[in-house]
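User: tokens in, sequence out, please.
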């Protein structure tokens, strides 16, 4: 087995990854923090505890609409008629878009009413417009939750208002948020809009600000969604971009609005200051070349089929080691995208990732005469 060492640094001291977490705590009932690019979980506190997700439920409501927009089953300009059922939520003291019975509202305005204004009435109008009833829409939500991998969640309504059966975990909310950002970057732009003005029927236009307090701090936060229920108290799914890094944090059980803002910011800031995200390689980009035996080319370019990032404690890049292992030289013929080697990544002595290396090209076998000459050269000189 040959090993090709890409980066090797002398290991001077032992440092456990968990040392970075010493004396750090978030004042929330449950919380989690992830580096988006690497997928590394940087912090968690009782992350699988069942919670009532409150208005963070609206993230899934938006995702269902985004799926249908992507497949052209609905359009942003399509208009849905507001039912009495939807209107009643605008009159019941909940956060609302303030729609009226019989209003015809575009999908885009309903989405902004949900995402920016956190309108429960807008959720019902969108759900009924898409699925005919909120109950049928909830089935779509739960199907999507299973697809994403939200194994500890169950949605019973589209808005997150009080229901004992509308449950999730901060880990599942993180999965959902990650899915949203990865799959719908264009529509995700709605989540950073600070206000929404709607020219409502039968009255003056109404402007409401985004309920996410971190958007107004000009620190790179671009989402995602707040929540509040009397029992659960305050919650927030948040995301920040800084220096080409993105972190996603979710917390629930903050005692006050002020605590939600301060503690969520503390969580994101800690992740940015305590860790670095290192880009190892890009999807489908030639990483290196490997020797070929009896082929029409002497070397083979190789790549991986995904972007690879690793998150490590700040200023510890020197402890990363990247090795390519393969049985070589690699005998021709070789087919493009054939697995020919392994990329192994270490931090200290810990293996933190193994990936298939794929051939970037086809390489044919030499003709009989060329193979004979090369074999003789190898026997005489060891030259391959």
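Assistant: Sequence out:
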């Amino acid at each position: 087995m040959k090993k090709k060492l890409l980066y090797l640094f002398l290991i001077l001291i032992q440092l456990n990854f968990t040392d970075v977490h010493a004396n750090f705590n978030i004042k929330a009932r449950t919380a989690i923090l992830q580096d988006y690019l690497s997928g590394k979980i940087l912090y968690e506190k009782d992350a699988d505890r069942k919670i009532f997700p409150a208005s963070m439920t609206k993230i899934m409501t938006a995702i269902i609409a985004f799926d249908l927009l992507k497949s052209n089953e609905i359009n942003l300009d399509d208009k849905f008629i507001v039912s009495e059922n939807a209107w009643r939520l605008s009159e019941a003291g909940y956060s609302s878009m303030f729609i009226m019975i019989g209003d015809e509202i575009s999908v885009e305005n309903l989405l902004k009413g949900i995402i920016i204004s956190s309108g429960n009435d807008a959720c019902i109008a969108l759900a009924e417009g898409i699925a005919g009833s909120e109950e049928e829409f909830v089935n779509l939500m739960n199907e999507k939750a299973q697809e994403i991998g939200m194994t500890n969640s169950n949605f019973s309504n589209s808005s997150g208002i009080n229901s004992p059966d509308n449950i999730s975990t901060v880990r599942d909310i993180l999965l959902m948020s990650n899915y949203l950002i990865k799959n719908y970057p264009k529509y995700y732009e709605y989540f950073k809009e600070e206000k929404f003005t709607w020219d409502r029927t039968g009255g003056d236009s109404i402007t409401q600000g985004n309920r996410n307090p971190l958007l107004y701090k000009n620190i790179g936060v671009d989402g995602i969604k707040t929540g509040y229920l009397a029992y659960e108290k305050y919650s927030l799914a948040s995301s920040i971009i800084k220096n080409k890094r993105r972190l996603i944090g979710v917390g629930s059980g903050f005692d006050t609005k002020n605590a939600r803002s301060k503690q969520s910011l503390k969580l994101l800031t800690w992740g940015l200051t305590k860790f670095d995200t290192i880009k190892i390689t890009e999807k489908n980009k030639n990483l290196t070349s490997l020797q070929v035996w009896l082929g029409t080319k002497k070397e083979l370019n190789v790549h991986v089929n995904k972007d690879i990032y690793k998150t490590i404690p700040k200023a510890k890049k020197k402890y990363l080691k990247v090795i390519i292992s393969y049985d070589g030289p690699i005998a021709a013929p070789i087919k493009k995208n054939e697995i020919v080697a392994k990329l192994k990544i270490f931090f200290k002595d810990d293996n933190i990732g193994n990936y298939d290396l794929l051939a970037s090209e086809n390489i044919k076998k030499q003709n009989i005469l060329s193979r004979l000459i090369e074999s003789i050269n190898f026997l005489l000189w060891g030259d391959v």
